């Protein structure tokens, strides 16, 4: 069967007519459905080690954190949840990381079902794909690559976990942490201190870091990078590495450059800021300091693991961690945040204005005004959401401003790092964090879809007279 043969149905036949749910609404209801199912399963006595019924709000919090691949928890994952509960959590993480439409597409293909145009449009929005054509094939490729990378990650981690926990338990732990790292979820089975016990284990730390980075790059970047490298190796005599780099799409180039700048920039900062801190890097050897500082730079975007005690970081390091969490990973990946390219576009725009240029040009390519406006909208709304939630928490929670800021940004950016206040949140606080995790995972997608739809409703491009105002 040709899975990419587009059905010749009209919009009305595909449920895209007036009064029908659009792609954005279906994405929201799909994730809500996953969260509700996860909540119900986690409330069952079989889901806990003590056989008790988990309170609804705690189960909802955990399910939301798993489906939205965040990692904030009100109960210790290792101690509280049974094997069944842990399986529910990791399943929610896997589906939430890939997106429920990816799962639906895989089931349809396996069953030989025809994938309608409406479903293709939903998949297109969920994956930030340019066109419905080819999106099913792209989705199946994502699934295969994800399973391959998670399998390799589990193999790498098994060298640590099997030695420590035995073969069966070690393999299960390896699979759990590989999926959690690749999906940028931040759930772990180590204990109450995240991955702090492995701060001196370079093999373990770099394996986790590689999984986090691969998950956060974005699926389209994988494909473009792979195809470009394949061309280079097949025609190595005709292309230099510089020419190969320029053959990458503008999006891929920006993602790689911005990601590397954030990773190594963050590493340099944490290495210097924490070098003599006796509670973090101070007592480690030079190689361990390098590894731990690199991990602290990679994880906030947006994995939620930590090998250093976060509450012991200097104030400057906590602030930089908040900034890294807010930026997050790259579009169309498993990471959260406002995304690297969003920030990159506005930085490029600022430089263009300072240079007196009316157009934003990079690598001899012009960035459209619509992309600039969308980036500005995303950042503005993100700041408003975080500020509103933070203000509410300052009234409801007994914690310092830095702890609340850290928690708020961590939830919105679906990171999962905390300074230790998650389990002590009030009922209102938990509801606010749940809402932030959900909005952070889906809200900005909805905004993007709304912008596209609204632009499509005005194809004539109605123009109004221009008048200057004073700014700055």
Count of individual beta strands? 2
Strand content: under 5%
Shape: globular
In DSSP terms (H or I, runs of 4 or more residues), the helix count works out at 18
**Average pLDDT over all residues:** 84
- The unreliable regions are 1-19
Oligomeric status: single chain
**Fraction in helix:** 55-70%
Q: Which structural category do the helix and sheet elements fall into?
A: mainly alpha
Q: Order of SSEs, N→C?
A: HHHHHHHHHHHHHHHEEHHH
CA(first)-CA(last) distance? 59 Å
Task: Put the structure in a nutshell.
With 472 residues, this protein is mostly helical. Helix content is 63%, strand content 1%.
Describe the 3D structure.
By secondary structure, this protein is mainly alpha-helical. Helix content is 63%, strand content 1%. It has 18 helices and two strands. A two-stranded antiparallel ribbon has the order 1-2. Strand 1 and strand 2 (365-367) form a beta hairpin. Helix 7 crosses helix 8 (167-182) and helix 14 (315-327) packs parallel to helix 17. The protein is globular and about 65 Å long. It starts with 22 loop residues before the first helix and ends in a 16-residue tail after the last helix.
């Amino acid at each position: 069967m040709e899975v990419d043969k587009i059905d010749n149905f009209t919009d009305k036949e595909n449920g895209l007519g007036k009064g029908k749910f659009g792609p954005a609404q279906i994405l929201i209801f799909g994730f809500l459905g996953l969260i509700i199912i996860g909540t119900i399963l986690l409330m069952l006595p079989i889901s806990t080690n003590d056989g008790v019924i988990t309170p609804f709000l705690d189960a909802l919090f955990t399910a939301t954190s798993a489906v939205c691949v965040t990692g904030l928890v009100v109960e210790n994952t290792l101690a509280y949840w049974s094997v069944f509960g842990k399986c529910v959590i990791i399943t929610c993480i896997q589906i939430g990381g890939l997106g429920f439409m990816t799962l639906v597409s895989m089931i349809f293909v396996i069953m030989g079902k025809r994938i309608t145009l409406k479903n293709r449009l939903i998949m297109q929005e969920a994956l930030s794909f340019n066109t419905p054509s080819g999106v099913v094939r792209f989705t199946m490729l994502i699934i295969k690559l994800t399973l391959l990378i998670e399998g390799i990650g589990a193999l790498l981690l098994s060298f640590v976990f099997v030695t420590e926990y035995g073969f069966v338990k070690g393999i299960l732990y390896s699979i759990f942490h590989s999926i959690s790292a690749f999906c940028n979820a931040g759930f772990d089975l180590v204990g109450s201190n995240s991955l702090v016990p492995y701060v001196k284990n370079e093999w373990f730390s770099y394996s986790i870091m590689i999984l986090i980075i691969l998950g956060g790059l974005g699926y389209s970047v994988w494909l473009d990078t792979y195809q470009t490298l394949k061309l280079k190796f097949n025609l190595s005599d005709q292309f230099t590495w510089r020419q190969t780099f320029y053959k990458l799409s503008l999006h891929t180039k920006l993602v790689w450059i911005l990601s590397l700048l954030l990773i190594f920039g963050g590493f340099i900062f944490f290495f210097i800021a924490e070098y003599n801190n006796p509670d973090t890097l101070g007592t480690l050897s030079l190689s361990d300091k390098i590894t731990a500082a690199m991990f602290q730079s990679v994880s906030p975007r947006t994995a939620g693991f930590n090998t250093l005690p976060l509450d012991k970081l200097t104030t400057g390091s906590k602030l930089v961690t908040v900034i890294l969490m807010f930026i997050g990973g790259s579009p169309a990946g498993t990471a959260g945040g406002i995304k690297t390219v969003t920030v990159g576009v506005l930085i490029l725009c600022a430089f263009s204005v300072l240079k007196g240029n009316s157009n934003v040009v990079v690598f001899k390519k012009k960035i459209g005004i619509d992309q600039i406006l969308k980036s500005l909208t995303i950042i503005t709304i993100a700041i408003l959401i975080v500020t509103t939630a933070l203000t509410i928490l300052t009234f409801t929670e007994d914690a310092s401003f830095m702890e609340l800021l850290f928690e708020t940004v961590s939830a919105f950016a679906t990171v999962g790092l905390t300074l230790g206040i998650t389990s002590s949140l009030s009922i209102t606080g938990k509801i606010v964090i749940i809402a932030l995790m959900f909005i952070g995972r889906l809200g900005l997608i909805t905004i993007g879809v709304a912008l596209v739809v609204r632009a499509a409703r005005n194809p004539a491009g109605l123009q109004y007279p221009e008048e200057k105002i004073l700014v700055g």
